[in-house]
Amino acid sequence: MPESNHIIITAAAEQQAGSDTKTALTSTNTVVWSEGDSFGVLYAGSAAQEFTLASGTGTANGTFAGDLPSGYSGKTLMAVYPYSSSTSISGTTLTFSLPQTQVYTENSIGEKANPSIGVFDTDTRTVSFKNVCGVLRLAIKGSTSVQSISVADNKTTAKLWGTASASISSSTYSLSLSGGDNSVILSCGGVQLDPETATTFYIVVPVGSFSTGFTATVRTPEGNVTFSTSKDNSVKRSVIKEMPENTLGEPDPVQLEEYTVLNDLMQEYMDKASYTSLTRSQTSYFTSAGLWTKVSAQMSSHVDYPKGVTVDLGRTTQSSVRLILATDEAFQNVKRDTTLTNSETQFELISLIPGNTYWWKSVSSTTVLNSGAFKVVGQLRPIKIEGGWNGRDLGGWTGLGGHKIQYEKMYRGGSLNAITTKAKTELQQVGIKAELDFRGLYTSYNNYEGIWATSNTAHNHALGYCPIYGSQMWTRVMSDYEQNKPLTHSVQVSQLAYVIKCLKAGYPVYFHCKSGADRTGEFGFTCEAILGLSEGDMVKEYELTTFSYENCKRIISDASYFATFFEAIQGMTTSATDVTFTSLRDRCYYYLNRYFVDNSVHTGDSQIGLNASDIDWFIAEMLGITEAEAATYRPSWARDNYTWTLDELINAAHPSKCSSH
After folding, report:
1. Collapsing DSSP states into helix, strand and coil, what is residue 530?
2. What is the DSSP letter of 504?
3. In the chain, what is the straight-line distance between the N-terminal and C-terminal CA atoms, in Å?
4. In 10 A of CB 454, how many CB atoms?
5. Using CA atoms, how far apart are residues 512 and 436, in angstroms rounded to an integer?
6. I want to staple 391 with a disulfide (CB 3.0 to 4.6 A). Which of 51, 219, 383, 535 is the partner?
């Protein structure tokens, strides 16, 4: 046959009494193939070629389609399940990765969790696989749910995962492992237990594990439950080691260290400042409690930055260490993955999200050097941006129906023009993917390319040039004139249309001007009102800019541009006879939805408004609710019959050049 042609392979799964294998188990432990299964075919020195299940789902013999590696003639071809491009053969040693984390599958082993190896017969185009691991079966009763199960070999020197080496000259392909450690994790995602009937959990482990017993830690919402055995429970190849049923007892108390990410002055403000309405005449906590004096005295130390959590990397002589941070113990939801090539032994985790429990580990190659977990408490989430200032997530505030604004959606702050390389990396780790700059000249909605500005001169270098990977950038002016005369230009309609478009694409947005105070504050004000923040919380959120490293005191009693804007909205009137206002939110909603259409403010393409359905989507996305629930917060007079698209709204307003940085 010609080399590298596309062929069909028949693959047989090994059958053995009480056995498991690569893919799924039936109720009688019969081995069957599953949809999407694939394996690699390779020889010494070649790359693995993927063969994917073409037919035979649910049977023990499947047919797989793929291309043989070039130059295979006369070579010993090996088949390895599951497929991985990193699988390799050198001499007679086959190398592949045995993962630490497996994913629970009901009444079966986890998808692609159990490796198997076989010799491919080029004449018959068949391969008979042999399993190279065994399986531990736990049967658990209880009234709670299981988030994960960690199983540790009582021999601390044992390896249950890591880089696996198998001799292809051995009929059973016995394994040796390097890297890794003595514990594996089954990620269960909240499997509900039954108090009467045991739920089975299958965990793939190397042959020979547990000769001195094991310890299992079951993580539940109420805490951890641990049980162990010291008996010889050695696992054999291709055999399920069944353990007696176990009923979960009371969980161990969860003892995680808690951290607040706020510095002391910001924490004082969040704890003690309280406002009831949005009026310029009220007294600020900064004035009444003397907080401004404390803040201004420490401004050079960046009191707008969050506090971090410092972890010990466990590093000795390793030249490269990966620090991985996740919000689940199985590290399925990774929030940060940083490679450190310098010699630092500690690392500060910053810009953390309140309410999250974090798991972290430092890894060199496949060896875990150190690990831990902690919880972040509080509400406010400042963002540390070296060379910048005043960065913060809008999440955490209480909106409509008592729902909290979601974190990781919208961020506000000051200019990014002079931020450091480290800050650019940090923004990427935080997940910001789009930018809305309120300075400079509008050029083209599709003009997202460029370089970082080197000057704060907005007229020449408006930061429509933010190289955050996968991002969209957009510069839209909100000039000082428009701040003072918000009812004569519809620019905020365009800005919110842009934010909605970005969020629909999965791009969290950072919006800013120079200081992140006035223009930024006004757009934040409009969004917060639509989302249902109380007037008191809107004041409180605005005043946080006073902590800015820019030394820009912004308290409600001194507010100028911001106060002019909200007072204009508060004093807004309409010629529409069907519209009545019962709240400041009503007025902001009308401003975005109908004001410029109803009142003939000016002619041309600025007579625009957001459809109620677009506003519904924004509310649902930001509050984590359904669009149907969001629609219940529409005013009775809301309009949803405009024909323009989001792109048309984005490009509709053409305000004048910004008059300040």
Report:
1. helix
2. H
3. 71
4. 9
5. 6
6. 383
Residue from 242, 219, 202, 180 nearest 113 by CA: 202
φ, ψ of residue 458 in degrees (nearest 5): -65, -30
How many Å separate Cα 485 from the centre of its chain? 39
- The two counts, helices (H) then strands (E), for the chain are 15, 35
For 485-507, what is the mean pLDDT?
86
**Beta strand pairing call for 6-12 and 126-128:** parallel
Among 124, 117, 109, 133, which residue's Cα sits nearest to residue 40?
Answer: 117
Three-state SS for 159? coil
CA nearest neighbour of 526 among 515, 510, 550, 542: 542
Cβ-count burial of 194 within 10 angstroms (0-12 exposed, 13-18 middle, 19+ buried)?
exposed
CA 502 to chain centre: 16
CA–CA separation, 131 and 238 (whole Å): 5
Quick one: tokens of 318?
A: 């390793």
Query: Longest C-alpha distance within the chain, in Å?
Result: 90
Task: Tell me the residue type at 206.
Answer: P
DSSP 8-state symbol, 657 = P
In 3D space, the residue among 179, 20, 36 whose CA is nearest the CA of residue 95 turns out to be 179
Whether 295 and 265 have beta carbons less than 8 Å apart is answered as yes
Q: Which of 184, 140, 135, 142 is nearest to 162 (CA)?
A: 184
The predicted-structure confidence for 51-65, as pLDDT tens digits, reads as follows 999 988 888 788 999
Residue type, 514: K
Please tell me whether residue 173 adopts helix, strand or coil conformation: coil
Residue-wise pLDDT tens digits, 404-457: 999 999 999 998 877 888 888 888 888 888 888 776 543 433 332 222 233 323
b/e map 235-258, b = 16+ CB within 10 Å: bebbbbbebeebebeebeeeeeee
Q: Do 7 and 1 contact (CB within 8 A), yes or no? A: yes
Question: What is the distance between the alpha carbons of residues 553 and 537, in angstroms, rounded to a whole number?
Answer: 18
Other CB atoms within a 10 A radius of the CB of residue 624 amount to 12
Record the tokens describing residue 238, joined without a space: 């291709």
CA distances from 500 to 296, 354, 409 (A): 37, 24, 10
**pLDDT tens digits along 76-99:** 999 999 999 999 999 999 999 998
> In sequence order, what are the beta bridge partners of 312?
346
Q: Which residues pair with 460 in a beta bridge?
A: none
DSSP codes of every residue in 267-300: HHHHHH----S--TTSPPHHHHT-HHHHHHHTGG
